[in-house]
Design brief:
Elements lengths: L8 H14 L7 H20 L7 H11 L8 H4 L2 H8 L7 H11 L3 H4 L8
Helix pairs in contact: 1-2
InterPro entries: Antitox_HigA, Cro/C1-type_HTH, Lambda_DNA-bd_dom_sf
GO molecular function: core promoter sequence-specific DNA binding
Protein name: HTH-type transcriptional regulator/antitoxin HigA
Length: about 120
């Protein structure tokens, strides 16, 4: 096992290839330990060079709705009416504090995600 920090794209690709080769190694074997370490190193490299931005509040709501197989009508109670749900999801109206509180509970989303600023449609 020759583990070192991943510094280049070539090293990153080599680490991915090696991880793929030993991914299903039995737990407790040297290969399993190597896979665990490679996973951590790959994760750190990806955080630095391939960061994933958190979605804005409206996208986060839409993603969670899809995951939970919800329709717009399912959020009427949390947002205060059918037209209000439509206006918020089409970015014509901003979320209110009350909506954020309700949606955080209903959709199991962090209020931190929902309070981020976002652009309204023009």
């Amino acid at each position: 096992m020759n583990i070192k920090l991943i510094r280049t794209e070539a090293e990153y690709q080599q680490a991915l290839d090696r991880l793929e080769a030993i991914f299903n190694a039995p737990v407790g074997t040297p290969e399993s330990d190597e896979a665990d370490l490679l996973g951590l190193l790959i994760d750190e490299y990806e955080k630095k060079y391939y960061p994933i931005e958190a979605p804005d509040p409206i996208e986060a709501i839409k993603i969670r709705m899809e995951e939970m197989q919800l329709k717009q009508k399912d959020l009427i109670q949390e947002m205060g009416g059918k037209s209000r749900v439509s206006e918020v999801l089409s970015r014509k109206r901003k979320l209110t504090v009350e909506m954020i509180r309700n949606l955080a509970v209903r959709l199991n989303l962090s209020a931190t995600v929902l309070v981020k600023d976002y652009q309204l449609a023009e």
